Amino acid sequence: xxxxxxxxxxxxxxxxxxxxxxxxxxxxxxxxxxxxxxxxxxxxxxxxxxxxxxxxxxxxxxxxxxxxxxxxxxxxxxxxxxxxxxxxxxxxxxxxxxxxxxxxxxxxxxxxxxxxxxxxxxxxxxxxxxxxxxxxxxxxxxxxxxxxxxxxxxxxxxxxxxxxxxxxxxxxxxxxxxxxxxxxxxxxxxxxxxxxxxxxxxxxxxxxxxxxxxxxxxxxxxxxxxxxxxxxxxxxxxxxxxxxxxxxxxxxxxxxxxxxxxxxxxxxxxxxxxxxxxxxxxxxxxxxxxxxxxxxxxxxxxxxxxxxxxxxxxxxxxxxxxxxxxxxxxxxxxxxxxxxxxxxxxxxxxxxxxxxxxxxxxxxxxxxxxxxxxxxxxxxxxxxxxxxxxxxxxxxxxxxxxxxxxxxxxxxxxxxxxxxxxxxxxxxxxxxxxxx
Length: 436
Description:
By secondary structure, this protein is α/β, with parallel strands linked by helices. It has helices at residues 13-20, 32-40, 48-54, 81-88, 133-143, 162-176, 220-231, 275-284, 312-320, 360-374, 389-394, 398-404, 409-414, 417-428; strands at residues 25-26, 64-69, 92-98, 116-117, 124-127, 147-151, 179-183, 195-198, 213-215, 244-247, 304-307, 326-333, 345-352.
């Protein structure tokens, strides 16, 4: 069931220094110089698993391996990496571990698939969703793994829970004293910079364990290095930093979007159908925290936004603002599930016209402010639990309280710039790839 293989340990002074600093050991595969040359010439992007397989799985030879993955763990011909690795006869894959939505991705938000045995490979699958690091560590012991690999497609937003599955599994690996290997993948929405508010510790949850920005602008291997260097040493549940390695992506630069990699797009979760969805998601996911539909239950989640109480003036007002890189189509839709199921909602569809100009988080803040101004008695924040869900998604109460007192977009955005600048400085120490 899960996919991919282990990354190669660099037994060099550079690698040792990287580990001591919390950085993943970047695996220097044979031909890496040629790979850098190919990158300059526009060579094909290879994922960490492809590099691992190309090198005959040397990193995990003789190891009992576990793999944390989901349906995104595929090779370019769309076979699952678990199937490829097991069929190779070179990997002793003894367990797979599934995140939210499950190893095969069949469950909706807030769900998973439970424990079972993969019918194709016979590998036992353990369900990590909703489990703490101590229970996950016991899974690692029960399975007898010596190395745990992680390979799940992230989409670049702090509240997309797979990165926190990775964090919890890193803490668990430190408890169980097993090696942790990240098979890296490109950030599908590019990773030139970080944007948005930074989470405050008192608002920690599974949509944000630690203080990173809302759009982090990193790959999963870079995040793992940051987690290991900045957070695990101070985490009371961790037995210190984990023994971390990473198999880097080849021929990728930070300015590339998913379509430029040549890699297939597989939905990482049921409501992330397209790369276009991922582009808007760091912003429009905030509508989860309002009484507007974020488009769940439609064919364009996070691109269609609306509510039964809205009408055409909202679309007109948004178009009049001429927000960069996006156009708004007046739209009417009926979700078949989630908020406002089977009710006609009026609203907009976002059409991103220039990804490099588009600012997902700023755009979403402008949309929320405009809806609240036009429909002050109908608009409300979602209060399913304390604190407000918007506070958990944005990482503090700043966005909500600023909007409630009438702040405009520029004032709201200005309120997180100092914390964002500090995070950007920290982030810079863990970046593994060139800008272009």
